[in-house]
Write a structure and sequence with these properties.
This protein is an alpha+beta fold. It is built from 17 helices and 16 strands. 46% of the residues lie in helices and 28% in strands. The strands form 2 sheets. A 14-stranded antiparallel beta barrel has the order 1-2-3-4-5-6-7-10-11-12-13-14-15-16.
């Protein structure tokens, strides 16, 4: 990308140097030379090296491409006490339209009175007056963060005594920034147009090409600029300038302009210096330039901020909103952390996890919370496992072995290392299987073997929470022994447990869907389908809301992708987990989820090392 920018910059200069007819024009007389007269006290004090500086309304004259980088509406007024009783007045206005476009207006008026006439043959007064005027409208466009372009259209008018002339000219400019650290490059080709006719004689406009660079040093307190300019019919001029903030709101400036073959008026004629003072929102500038026996030039300018354009005002409002949201986010993080700590202390692990995860969503940098969440989840698991374990103990005491088996199996699934749960599972399994050989075996070993297999298979399904499969296995066992009371009890108990759990999950799903928590509702319906694959209520709900669930799944997937691009891995993982709850067969979400987990693992490894 940098090579492209340098290519554009070099190509532009080559085109200018090779413009057809430029050499021929250089041989003709030049008119309207005041078009190249430096304006603005700040640029003049810096040796007129200002082509690559785009910080204020001076850029309307020096490089129109930089107008878009001036983010405020500014008005510049300049008064110059020139040599030979000439005085100049100049104004400029910058107006941002958007982040990419801005316009500028400027005007110049140079005048003198009481000039002596050169010929005594001329009738009338012995003195005359002269006026030089131009107005221009400039437009600036930000092509990208690196390149801005500018175009300026000028209207020109001259008056000498009773003779006048008018014309138009165009300026083309570029500003290139952020290609090299801290360095701006500027290029301008000015005063392109047809010759101006004065008393029927055509005079070529004073075309000038300028290139330059600027850079800040010393924590941005020092600005150094360097320009090279080539006016028509004149030697190349090298310009060097600097500005240093000596105290808050006070700036010292100096510069030097050197002609290729020396300054005709002496070494000091190229020297400039000046001072800048910021007062409240206003800026006052002064520049001094000595011109040997011709006299000295004094320039005074003031920049008045007139407020922000609509788009800039919107940006400020957006920033204020962003600051407010940041403050609210900080406050919420504090509140959530307090709530999570309180719930954790009281043993309410579920709510503690909920608030810790909310903090992580608001501020993913709080990575230490992962450990707290992990501990809270472990505590929640142990608490849930204990709840199921003691339910199983109560059921076992009442000889309700089916309920005891179900509860202890849930405790084992939640926490396989939970104390005594494995031992109790073995004990209840022994109780359940101990009675199957009490009755006299019927003739033939094959039916008995099949019966035992169905009973064992039913227990295996029951331990996995597959109630429907367990019921099916025990029905097959009853087909062999229709009067077996124990199997009938297993069948009744299991069917009742399945129905109770499905009813509980259905109620939870209905509440969640009504509250708008569709992810949890779908999660409960899928749990029902896992318990009973042919459950008509859950399958009907999933079918009715299929379109809505798919839309929600796609939106969550795209949100996850956005968070992943923003490097917010915690939220991306959370979103893709929700997608897999809504759509377990979503391969893209599964693939991206694993990728995000791997990336997070790599980051954690790097942080540890």
């Amino acid at each position: 990308m940098r090579r492209n920018f340098f290519g554009i910059f070099i190509a532009a200069n080559l085109v200018v140097l090779l413009l057809p007819g430029l050499n021929q024009a250089a041989q003709e007389s030049i008119g309207a030379i005041y078009l190249n007269q430096a304006v603005g006290a700040r640029p003049a004090a810096m040796g007129e090296a200002f082509i690559a500086v785009a910080e204020d309304s001076n850029t309307v004259f020096w490089n129109p491409a930089g107008i878009v980088r001036v983010k405020n509406i500014e008005f510049l007024a300049v008064h110059t006490e020139f040599i030979q009783n000439f005085s100049d007045e100049y104004f400029a206005l910058t107006w941002p339209l958007s982040n990419q476009d801005a316009i500028g207006i400027n005007g110049f008026f140079s005048y003198t009175t009481q000039l002596d006439k050169a010929s005594w043959f001329f009738d009338g007064p012995d003195t005359f007056s002269a006026y030089d005027v131009y107005f221009s409208l400039a437009w600036s466009h930000d092509v990208n963060p690196h390149i801005a372009t500018g175009l300026s259209l000028k209207g020109i008018y001259q008056l000498i005594d009773t003779y006048s002339a008018w014309n138009a000219a165009v300026d083309i400019s570029f500003l290139i920034s952020k290609v090299l650290p801290g360095i701006n490059f500027g290029f301008a080709l000015k005063n392109l147009g047809f010759p101006i006719k004065f008393i029927e004689n055509p005079h070529t406009l004073p075309i000038i090409m300028e290139i330059g660079a600027s850079r800040r040093f010393l924590k941005d307190d020092l600005l150094v600029t360097f320009d090279i300019s080539k006016p028509l019919q004149e030697e190349i001029r090298f310009k060097l300038g600097g500005e240093y903030m000596v105290a808050e709101n006070i700036y010292l400036r100096a510069g030097y302009a050197y002609l290729q073959h020396g300054n005709e008026l002496g070494f000091l004629s190229g020297l400039t210096c000046g001072l800048g003072v910021n007062f409240l929102e206003y800026r006052l500038d002064y520049a001094f330039a000595p011109y040997a026996e011709l006299g000295n030039i004094h320039r005074f300018s003031i920049i008045l901020p007139l407020g922000s354009a609509l788009m800039i005002e919107k940006e400020k409002i957006a920033k204020r909103i962003e600051d407010t949201l940041r403050a609210k986010k900080k406050h919420l993080v504090k509140v959530y952390m307090h709530s999570a700590g309180k719930y954790l202390k009281n043993g309410d692990y579920k709510n503690a996890i909920f608030y810790y995860e909310k903090v992580l969503v608001l501020d993913p940098r709080q990575s230490f919370l992962k450990e707290k969440i992990s501990r809270a989840k472990k505590g929640l698991h142990n608490k849930n496992a204990a709840s199921h374990y003691y339910r199983g103990r109560r059921a076992y005491a009442k000889a309700d072995y089916i309920t005891a088996l179900i509860e202890w199996n849930k405790a084992y699934e939640i926490s396989p290392s939970f104390k005594n749960v494995k031992q109790m599972l073995g004990k209840v399994h022994a109780k359940l299987t101990a009675t199957k050989h009490r009755k006299t075996k019927p003739q033939g070993g094959k039916p008995i073997k099949k019966f035992d297999q169905y009973i064992t298979k039913g227990f295996r399904y029951l331990r996995k929470g597959k109630y429907r499969n367990a019921i099916s296995a025990w029905k097959k066992a009853l087909a062999i022994k229709p009067n077996n009371a124990r199997v009938k009890q297993y069948l009744t108990k299991t069917a009742q447990k399945m129905e109770d759990e499905i009813t509980e999950l259905s109620d939870k799903a209905a509440v969640c869907w009504h509250k708008g928590d569709k992810i949890s509702a779908v999660k409960f319906w899928r749990k029902i389908v896992k318990i009973d694959p042919k459950n008509p209520r859950a399958l009907k709900k999933l079918k009715i809301h299929d379109s809505e669930i798919r839309t929600l799944s796609n939106n969550l997937y795209l949100d996850g992708v956005q968070k992943y691009v923003e490097n917010n891995l915690v939220e991306a993982i959370s979103l893709w987990k929700d997608v897999l709850i809504l759509d377990p067969e979503n391969e893209k979400a599964y693939k991206h989820l694993n990728r995000a987990k791997d990336k997070m693992h790599e980051i954690e490894e790097l942080m540890r090392n």
